[in-house]
Design goal:
Blueprint lengths: L1 H30 L3 H6 L2 E4 L8 E6 L2 E7 L11 E3 L2 E7 L10 E3 L4 E3 L6 E2 L5 E3 L11 E4 L2 E4 L4 H8 L5
Antiparallel strand pairs: 1-11, 2-3, 3-5, 4-5, 6-7, 7-8, 8-9, 10-11
The protein binds FE2/S2 (inorganic) cluster (FES).
The site of FE2/S2 (inorganic) cluster has 11 residues, from loops.
């Protein structure tokens, strides 16, 4: 009799443990992002609230993305993202020398990398120090007043074909 009770106890314990694992698995599934969201990897940013000469840093696929609304006195560039009458600089915020994150200096209107002193202008073009190339422009699509990072819209494809994105 006692061995039967032992067996029942073990069986019940086993069920309880399995139930616990199933509950934990269900909880983990509910914390994870939906597969479609994770796979899509898009970030949408509303540009209608952007202020001139104020750097907006977003995150896209684990990388910092710089969005800078240009002032009218900043040099216009083929790398500018034009939305309505406004021009924006949009780039992956990683220095093209060794990958540090440059800082934006609004008074000087330039990006400076603290690692080795590299500088970029407000079009993301390298102007001083060791960076060998401009800041990289991420895939983007303009959707009204919004920019969708991660999607290759016609404006991005045009830049890409002209060799301006890297
Ligand atoms: S990593 Fe930016 S200048 Fe070297």
């Amino acid at each position: 009799m006692s061995s039967r009770r032992d067996f029942m106890g073990m069986a019940l314990g086993g069920f309880t443990a399995l139930g616990g694992i199933a509950a934990l698995y269900a909880m983990k599934r509910s914390w994870d992002p939906l597969p479609s969201v994770a796979a899509a990897g898009f970030t949408t940013v509303d540009l209608s609230v952007a202020k001139e000469n104020v750097l907006n840093v977003q995150k896209w696929r684990g990388k910092p993305i710089f969005i800078l609304k240009k002032t009218s006195d900043m040099q216009a560039d083929d790398r500018d993202v034009v939305v309505g009458r406004a021009r924006y600089h949009v780039s992956i915020g990683l220095c093209t020398h060794l990958g540090c994150i440059p800082a934006y200096l609004p008074a000087e209107k330039l990006f400076r990398c603290a690692c080795h002193g590299g500088e970029f202008d407000t079009s993301g073009r390298e102007t001083f120090g060791p960076p060998p190339s401009p800041l990289v422009i991420p895939p983007f699509k303009i959707d009204g007043n919004k920019i969708v990072l991660g999607e290759e819209g016609p404006e991005y494809l045009k830049m890409k074909e002209a060799g301006l994105t890297a």
